[in-house]
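User: What would this chain look like folded?
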Amino acid sequence: NIATQTDSGSFFSSVSASVDIYKVNSDCSTKYSGTLGLDSSSIDVGIPIDDLTYMVFVFSSSGFLSNSSSTTTYATLLKAKQDYFYSANVTYLDSIYNVEINEVSAKTDKSYLLEDTKLMNCNKLISK
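Assistant: Here's the prediction, encoded as structure tokens.
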């Protein structure tokens, strides 16, 4: 589940968030799976268990009158485990973004904040 909170923007600007999802192969190459818009407050996403998934969160803002726009990204690898579910809190407020992904045990309800993992470190996760 991805919960999203962004600035609503104004008449003169707009803000949007999305996530690009990639399957990671055994050689650490990626294959694009799709993009989900994160404009609603919450969305469920299916991530395969025991496979490595690369998630790129994209935050965009633009001004209508100033012709200015900016894009910021946050990327991380995720290896979903059996008997766990994952919750991401995504915020983009006052031009500051934050992504927190929690791993929650279905058996104990204990929650763990996951550290971001760069794609260049994928060999460490594949060998696990």
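Helices lie at 122-126. If you want, I can go into more detail on any region.
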